[in-house]
Amino acid sequence: MKCAFTPRADDRPVSPSPRVLIASHPFGESAPEALELLRATGAELIFNPHRRKLTRDELLDLLDGGVRAAVASTEPYDANLFAARPALRLVARTGVGLDSVDLEAARAAGVIVSCTADAPADSVAELTVGLAVALARHVVRADRALRAGRWERRTGWLLAERCVGIVGLGRIGSRVARLLRPFGCRRVAHDIDSGVAPRARALGVELLSLAELRREADIVTLHVPLTERTRGLVDADFLAALRPGALLLNTARGPVVDEDALLAALRSGHLGGAALDVFEQEPYRGPLVAEERVILTAHMGSCSDRGRRAMELGAARAVAAFLSGEAVPGRVV
Known about the structure:
Rossmann fold, single chain, globular, seven-stranded parallel beta sheet, 2 domains, alpha/beta, 12 strands, five-stranded parallel beta sheet
């Protein structure tokens, strides 16, 4: 099956070979074969020189000169960008989240969008459970104290005696539930999709309303996509409804949590702690860095060797298929 497309006019100089931007970083460290696959297409590869998430201006600059495909991270792709860089015909996401890509604008502009939906799921789930244990047992606080010359033996929670609330029982949330089972904790979940009920039963997870979950859970972990419905989901009212001393984990998307409300809940003492891998603005340099009861990581949920390899290979295969005129795997638009 062919994936036909019609080239659009572009008055910038175009390389004789198709040009591919690798915006995602790191890329090729976990999967050198992904780079080999891209090079085998004969494409000219353009790498992210900033070694971090690109700003809009940086992305526009790197896409200049007739770039046809982008191996994308979470930098923004919207209608204005598609209009400004009409040579771009494929956005191949390394990961599952598509909130950084305006899918309707891509469809209108004739831009193909793909993702590697399953590739990061195990990696994010493992990091989530690791953060839950580290937060419940004050691991990071003890480490900081010891490095500062203080010997602090802190008493934390045993997960077996607690209730963990999973908001979103999809690819990642269901894996978190599976990994938590041996700890012996009570596991409850909320999902707007009633179709997850068989999955919940198979995992031994109790489905609750969101209000019930907030009342019951000692630890709340977020695993929802960023949509208009979930943007700002965890606001002051959400946090106030949690049990006193509850812990919050976010390895989903930063804007799901109102960071000002989170800071206020921590400083008031109502929230016992938080662990965040994602933020409204990344790289993050906000006031949460000064909070002792917060663990912060640099959007590295997918960054396991196997997870990165699967994502990089998936995106590279999408680009290779596109350049050869074949059906693009993982295509969503």
